[in-house]
Amino acid sequence: MRKIIVTGGNRLTGEISISGAKNAVLPILAATVIGANESTIFNVPELRDVEVMERILLSLGCNVKKMDKMIWVDSKPLNNHKIPEDLVREMRSSIILMGAMLSRCGEVIISYPGGCEIGPRPIDMHLKALRELGAEIEESHGFIYCKANELKGCEIQLDYPSVGATENIMLAAVKAKGTTVIRNAAREPEIIDLQSYLNKAGAKINGAGTSVIIIDGVDKLNNVTHNTMPDRIVAGTYMIASAITEGEVVVKNIIIDHLQAVIAKLREAGCLIYNDNNSLKIIGPKQINSIEMIQTLPYPGFPTDMQAQMMALLSIANGTSIISETVFENRFKHAEELTRMGANIKIFGKVAVIKGVKELTGAKTAAKDLRGGACLILAGLAARGVTEVENMYHIERGYENFHVELRELGADIKKID
Ligand code: UD1
């Protein structure tokens, strides 16, 4: 089993260039099946989740070629509409293939994704919306059977701005007859990236980034080339790596606007942050200030995907901080591991109370999920002594060469196979 060993205490300095966004490229790769066309996607991060999506596309019959940071997908030969069960189990977000495959073949069979490390994650909104678009869906023995002779545009009011449901609807509606309107749509930047990819291929979508998205159905999609947006969560994680080590790190190749909620909280914590075009310099303070309240929210609120990393930082603040996790249930598993390192954290349902301690001490820990794993590595960077983080595979789902990049910034860190 692969694990990370980090010896804390080194100050991080230097520059890091941020890779393409996992959460943007996954729905885009799902979208490649819609058009029986060729897609060339640049700035694709090398991550386990992306590999799983490639394997799904191959299993559906697509031609897929990968070179460095580029993926080329030819979806003309697609000849299968069953998504392999083991791959769905490995990557829950393969559920966004439902909309894309319905659009392409009018049929898809996918196993029920079930729960995951950060809560039950139901898909009721996905299914309801696809039914509204005209799909017939049966759930039986752990599988979802979807069929649609014709998808028809309609007005869909989401109960909650779910990222995945918004994407699934966009993918299903691209070639539907007539106009689809999504109200209370998720406003995450990754949805703008999906709109941009689809429109370059000939789709007619407006409004991504706002809570009303309008999709006028088109007959076909053309060959397309797209450059994936930078990963705001990876960027935010390196910003905290600088903050927690009294470091001075420049995070390059980002879209600063996507990071405003994180920037605001890091400034409250005492960081100095300077911006310059597409980069930010983060100077960590000698003493982290506690933060009265952080509430995770849909974009543009504070991202749930940055909650764990922020908890690592606040565990050594000079007072008590409160984090309220409103997006996912059961997303505080890292708190227990931080406690092993000497943190003082109490969980009350969806609220965490973090009483800052003078210092963390190295300990044997295990990543329970992707961002929780990143949180433990960040804590290890600041802790006295050696921290081990087991279950590296969680971290590899979302961070490319994390330990190598951190080492280049000055961390004492290695991976053991
Ligand atoms: C996406 C991101 C994930 C991020 C999350 C919130 C990808 C691949 N993943 O996940 O990294 O943490 O957005 O920013 O882009 N819900 C329902 N019913 C549904 C759908 C969702 O109850 O049908 C609930 C979920 O359980 C959760 C909340 O809505 O509590 C938000 O989920 P959603 O926005 O759908 O997140 P994902 O798309 O799964």
From TrEMBL:
Binding-site residues for phosphoenolpyruvate, renumbered to this chain: 22-23
InterPro entries, per the entry: Enolpyruvate_Tfrase_dom, Enolpyruvate_Tfrase_sf, MurA_subfamily, RNA3'P_cycl/enolpyr_Trfase_a/b, UDP_GlcNAc_COvinyl_MurA
Key words, A-Z: Cell cycle, Cell division, Cell shape, Cell wall biogenesis/degradation, Cytoplasm, Peptidoglycan synthesis, Pyruvate, Transferase
GO cellular component: cytoplasm
GO molecular function list: UDP-N-acetylglucosamine 1-carboxyvinyltransferase activity
Catalytic activity, EC: 2.5.1.7
Superkingdom of origin: Bacteria
UniProt subcellular location: Cytoplasm
Residue stretches making up the Enolpyruvate transferase domain: 6-404
A UniProt-annotated Pfam family: EPSP_synthase
Positions carrying 2-(S-cysteinyl)pyruvic acid O-phosphothioketal: 116
Pathway: Cell wall biogenesis; peptidoglycan biosynthesis
Uppermost EC category: transferase
One record GO biological process: regulation of cell shape
Record family assignment: Belongs to the EPSP synthase family. MurA subfamily.
Biological role stated in the UniProt entry: Cell wall formation. Adds enolpyruvyl to UDP-N-acetylglucosamine.
UniProt protein name: UDP-N-acetylglucosamine 1-carboxyvinyltransferase
Organism: [Clostridium] ultunense Esp
Phylogenetic placement of the source organism: Bacteria, Bacillati, Bacillota, Tissierellia, Tissierellales
